Amino acid sequence: MLAVTFLFFISLSSALNLFAPNKYSKGDKVELLLNKIESDHTQLPFHYHDLPFVCHDKTKKAKSMSLGEILRGDRFWESNYNLEFMMDRPCVRLCDMTTTRGGIGRADRLIRDGYVVHWNLDGLPGATTFTSENHISKYYAAGFPLGFVKDDISYLYNHVTLVIRYHTERDGQHTIVGFEVYPKSVSDHHCPGTTKDYQNYRLMSSKESQKDLPEKNLISYTYAVYWREDNSVTHANRWDLYYENDHSAASHKIHWFSLVNSLVLVCLVTLVVAIVMFRLLRTDLQSGPTIPMSQADFDINSSGSWKKLVYEVMKRPVGVLPLSILIAYGLQCLVAMVGVMVIFVLNSKLTFGQGSSANAFFNNHQGAFFTCSVVFLLASGFVSAYAGVIIHKILSNEDPNTLYQRRRVLILSCLYSGMLPFTILMVVLFINLFVWAKESSNALPFGTIVVLILLFAIIELPLGLLGGTLGNRVQFSPKSFIMKTHIPDKTSVAKSSGNRSIVMNPVVSVLAFGLIPFGIVYVDLLFIFNSVWLEKTTFFYMYGFLLSTVTLLVTVVGESAIVGTYLSLAMFNNPNWQWLCFRIGSSIGWYVYGYSIFYFVFHLHMSDFVSVLIYFAYMALVSCSLGITCGAVGVLTAMMFVRLIYGEVKAD
Prior knowledge:
Shape: elongated
Number of strands: 17
Radius of gyration: 30 Å
Strand content: 5-15%
Number of helices: 16
Largest sheet: 6 strands, antiparallel
């Protein structure tokens, strides 16, 4: 419902032209915004405006940004670049910047670390242009290099040629559809286009020390602007060049191939579950007495011995409160995750990797992804508290129609709705201390932290209290399978067998039951890791594939929990299925974290402590949350399975 409402808001806003594209006429001012610099070798971006070797203008101010843009790491600032629509400027002198030897040393280190510059024009990031291998098409990579290194000497790019492409609309006005940046290094104040012979602006070699540099160093910054009409690109599909590259077609094929393989795996697991349900359960349910009437009835080697555990499987598991909190945590995470994906899939009209035009709204509002995530995270607290109170009653083996006291509902609701956002907030604030100490632009401002805390206190907790109160008042029909299998604690219980198997060993069960779920998500994990950790963008647009993968993942986790539950009950007469199923479901979290270690070693090139800390802390949070989510799915599926099969058990 929330996803539909959110999508309706987007559609209504589009219909009312609240998010209509900016249109320009000749001579109109066009604002170029400075953003940040970042590198593939570190997780520490910096404000471009704060660099000691670039042009500064105290009259320029920071631009206001949305919460999503701040969380994304954007830090927009006004610039001195004077751009007038359709007015070419072959050479403009921006400023003569005098910097210290420390500024030169800072520039040298940033260039050697591979930092790229991010600017923004009409919502488009300044891009480096590449030509495909067949030289037929081109594509964009967001950002442009700060400089380059040649023969162990670093050089600074102090001149940029801006090529801005526009599309002529039917009303005669124009929209911007491309923002290309071509940087060059020039040793003097002349633009490269005005002189044929020029040298690059040399900084220093790795063998030199900062002490060998002059105390004061002059850097001349220049730029050129060219406007080019390009009616082959419209405002709706102007982001396509940022997504398409030499590997796009192969990526689509890989996703389809992976999806087919995942379907085959799910079908195999489904077949196993069908055999369990049809051959074993049907045979056992049709044979002999079902509920043990005396101690002599407990023969664990007899057919249908799982039925004799009817009293024990309904008992309270060890740690009801922690288990119910984990289930509520997983439910909230699942609802928020699926909600965000549904929004993107519906907005893209169910496209499966068909380019960016279908996601035009989110592309033109890059912070919308994080804003949407925060909204769903807060709203899903209602669901987690609502379901958490009901699940707590069931796991406690209390009458589901019993009303808890208000104080108890208050405490449980806060725990169920607040655990996930509280955990995320604590991890973010912990990492923020280290990022702030490094003066990185990714450090959250104090005002943003206050806003997040207020959102948690004013929206999340009240929604949780409402959900918990409504969940406490839910009344189940006596014919419900939940009510039919309710057995009070005071009832005499059967003794479980001491049988143990290596299959039920925690390590073995994690390795065995986590392999197939990980195989289903592996390909999507690779693309997401590349997008987040290597490219550092939200340019992931294959949400149709991702939603399909999550659906298959939930299916196979639920089916694995059913298989594990039946093995525990029928083969080993172990009635403690709750934590077993949670362990089975959460096993994928260990695989994902193991894969993150592999990815760090073989794909990333981080060396500084803070970047490594950021990577492994966030991956621990993601892996833990994914594991808990799948663990919750496993427990809930097994709970339905157990109550359904024991609901069929009748005493003679």
